[in-house]
Amino acid sequence: MNRSMEASELLAFVEASDIAYKRAFSRMERRLWGILFWNEGNPGHYDANHAHLSGTVSDEEEAERIVQEIVAFFASKAIIPRLYLYAPERMGPLLDVLGRHGFRTETLPSIVQVWQGKLAEAPPVPGMSIEPVTRGNYEDCLLVESVPELGGREIREESFACEFAHPAFSHFLLRVAGEPASALCLLQEGSVFRIENVATLPAYRGRGLVGHLIRHAQEQFVQKGGSRLWVSPIDQRVERVYSRYGFSTVGKFSMVHAFRGGKGILELR
Asked: DSSP labels for 16-48?
């Protein structure tokens, strides 16, 4: 697939995948205005603890009710209240109300790239091997995925355990000379696959290891008969990396992260 996606199609596509991803490590409750995700055992994990909204909020009175409900819900669980707004252009009154309730906001550009079918090519790495993650190498993979970019061990440990136990996730560990160096996971939702949690330990960066993991993910996708393999790079630099490995950008949209405490996602990156 090399065409651009319509805005509504893109939003629906990303939302469905995000919900499947977060259900693996969070409890979930639907409301008329959206979804609540929470995990009291891992309160610092943003994706595990937030309100998800994508509909239209055109009335300030409705916006006030939504914000009060969200704040009360997370306060009851001693979790910082936060919201992910997937269509902020349809939520003007909600953004105004959030500001009055002391929420900070940041706009996150979201890029969607889809693999076009050509296997990634990466320079040879002596002593490299890639293996599925099992109980036997679980701790080695967790070590790699505990890099600061993924939140550090305190945040990653709980969600990694939930993902490992969930059948929709497949984790892969890359070793160099027998030592853990890099990792990646595939999330499957029906016939659609998504690349997530790509990480490399600092000592092994700059060697092209990610290219080998991406190729392995592509091969897994083909073997399993997937219909679409995609990724959402965090910025334009990472977008260029995936472009070199056979992915094409099919659309971009903006999401707003609203939070009443802690750091913004852009600050953490």
From this structure: HHHHHHHHTTSEEEEETTEEEEE-TTSTT-GGG
CA pair distance 79, 205, nearest whole angstrom: 35
Closest-CA residue to 114 (of 261, 13, 237): 13
Which position has the token pair 């990303």? 14
pLDDT band at 216 (very low <50, low <70, confident <90, very high): very high
Provide φ and ψ at 178, rounded to 5°.
Answer: 85, -10
Tokens of residue 199, six digits: 């990480």
Q: Give DSSP secondary structure letters for 120-154.
A: P-----TTEEEEE--TTTHHHHHHHHTSGGGTHHH
Three-state secondary structure of 152-165: HHHHHHHHHHHHHH
> How far is Cα 113 from Cα 136, in angstroms, rounded to an integer?
33
Bridge partners (DSSP) listed for residue 169: 187
Q: What is the pLDDT of residues 63-86, one digit of tens each?
A: 999 999 999 999 999 999 999 999
What percentage of the chain exceeds 90 in pLDDT? Answer: 79
pLDDT digits (tens, 9 = 90+) for 20-63: 889 889 999 999 999 999 999 999 899 999 999 998 998 999 99
Q: Is the pLDDT of residue 149 over 90?
A: no
Do residues 130 and 173 touch, judged by C-beta distance below 8 A? yes
